[in-house]
Amino acid sequence: MADTIALEVTRYCPERDAEPSFQTFEAPLRKDWVVLDALNYIKDKVDGSLSFRWSCRMGICGSCGMMVNGEPKLTCATFLSNYAPGPIRVQPLQYFPVVRDLVIEMTDFLNKLKAVKPWIVRREEKPLSAGEYLQTPEQMDAYKQYSMCINCMLCYAACPVYGLEKHFKGPAVLALAQRYNKDSRDQGAGERTDLLSQEDGIWDCTFVGECTKVCPKNVDPAGAIQQYKLTATIEWFQSLLMPWGAK
Amino acid sequence: MNETPAYTEFHPRWYRPRVSTYWWLWRWPYLKFIIRELSSLSVVSFVVMALLQLSALRRGPQAYAEFQELVKHPFLIALAAVSLFFVVFHAITWFNLTPSAMPVRVKGKRLPDFLVAAPNYVVWLVLSGAVAWVVLGG
Amino acid sequence: MPKRSNEPLLWSLFSAGGVVAAFLIPVHLFLFGVAFPLGWLPDPGYQRLLALVRHPLTRIYLFVLCSLPLFHWAHRFRYTLYDGLQIKHLNELIFTFCYGGAMAGTAAAGYLLWTIR
Asked: Which residues on chain C are in Cβ contact (under 8 Å) with A160?
């Protein structure tokens, strides 16, 4: 096995460049090194101006998502040795604006996330003295899978519809809306349906299914969206047949 | 649509990549997706042929004999064979996606995907057999 | 309150058509498109098919078999044109073409099945 591997890394300096270009670096090819280790090696030893986001190095913070050889990956969980002999192409997550080098602009995602009320909505909070909101293991199982989302946005970089339709809410936001809709303690499903049963909500999704495949936490946003389509359709027919019994 | 928050207004030169019109050619899963969607064209070609057949049936034995000769044309047989391939592709992808779109829960636990998909194939076989049995005269 | 979209109606037609197309079209296509023209299986012929089509249940079956898959196509083809060719600005034209086509096919199927003696 060769002792180094080449990384072709996107460089983009907004003050200087009209568009991104690639710069090739050599990094040690160690069995226990991931792409993020190689990027940190480059930043520490070769070129300190290389910019990228990272934090926990253990697949939980969701900061280090990048395109590795064209696939959205958490770079902290993507081993260099899987790509030997290289070169490995490292690019910023696609379909997002690029701020600099490997850093993308995520405000759009955060605004869309906030809009679907990703928290437990209660019509009336119980007083503290009434105790906790109890939940059975079955009730928890209904939403637990969606609650594993770490907002890494790999699913956005896998979703061509998000690339083409800038208003589309996107996989993670819709899965997180389902996370709260399916929570037995939540009463906000009606408010969310008004927002989500729209063209820029669930109906833009064409079930490409790649969001589910790239998700590092097995959240299955594609499944969440299709299930939500079925729920919204049933509600639509109900409100058509029984307009008086809305929600 | 989204208001720009204050902390990003000093990044006037974001690079905004444009999605290529041929985005679906570059990656196999995307190409497979487009093939799956375009299989619906084979569905249309089937319906058009079925309507032509019904129209021939309606017009009488002479017209139907002409229709029977028409569908023996190599081009139409090839079209039917290609359509068959795409419609089967549609059926398989459709059946395999059902567990994702309609998961089945037993006692609060989600059934494994293949247990949800498998009955589709059984129903497929039974229905196909039934249609063939009726058409071929029992 | 934001207006809810009519997409649920179109989507349920798409789904129903997808189910019908997946379960039933392959066998029809195999029999009438390949097996009978190539002589692999004996063609049932005019008299038998006419007798079958005269039965009201067969008429309903054939109407569903022709109509729903067209709405399935309309939905898929519309989104493929939007996303695959990036021509969403032709939105209304594409919508009219797809659903107009599906409704025309449905009308043709209804007319033929209604008027076959």
From this structure: 83
Given CATH 1.10.1060.10, say whether it is the number of domain A107-245. yes
Q: Which chain C residues contact residue A197 at CB under 8 A?
A: 4-5, 7-8
Name the CATH code of domain A4-104 (choices 3.10.20.30, 3.40.50.150, 3.40.830.10, 3.10.290.10): 3.10.20.30
Q: Are A150 and A62 in contact (CB under 8 A)?
A: yes
Q: Taking Cα atoms as reference points, which of B97, C9, B17 lies closest to residue A166?
A: B17
H or E stretch at A88: strand A88-91
pLDDT tens per residue across span A157-200: 999 999 998 899 999 999 999 999 999 999 999 899 888 888 88
Q: Which helix (H) or strand (E) holds A72?
A: strand A71-74
- Provide the ipTM: 0.92
Q: Do B87 and C26 touch (CB under 8 A)?
A: yes
Q: Is residue C3 part of a domain?
A: no
Backbone angles phi, psi at A119, to 5 degrees: -155, 170
For B29, how many CA atoms within 13 A lie in the half-sphere containing its CB? 13
Task: Please answer yes or no on whether A160 and C83 come within 8 Å at the CB atom.
Answer: yes
The phi, psi pair for A91, rounded to 5°, reads -130, 160
Quote the number of domains for chain C.
1
Is residue C72 one of the residues assigned to a domain? yes
Cβ atoms of residues A155 and A169 within 8 Å: no
- Read off the pLDDT of residues C35-92 as tens digits, 9 standing for 90 and up: 999 999 999 989 999 999 999 999 999 999 999 999 999 999 999 998 888 887 888 9
Predicted pLDDT of residue C90? 86
CATH number of B17-102: 1.20.1300.10
Of A198, A206, A232, the CB nearest to C79: A206
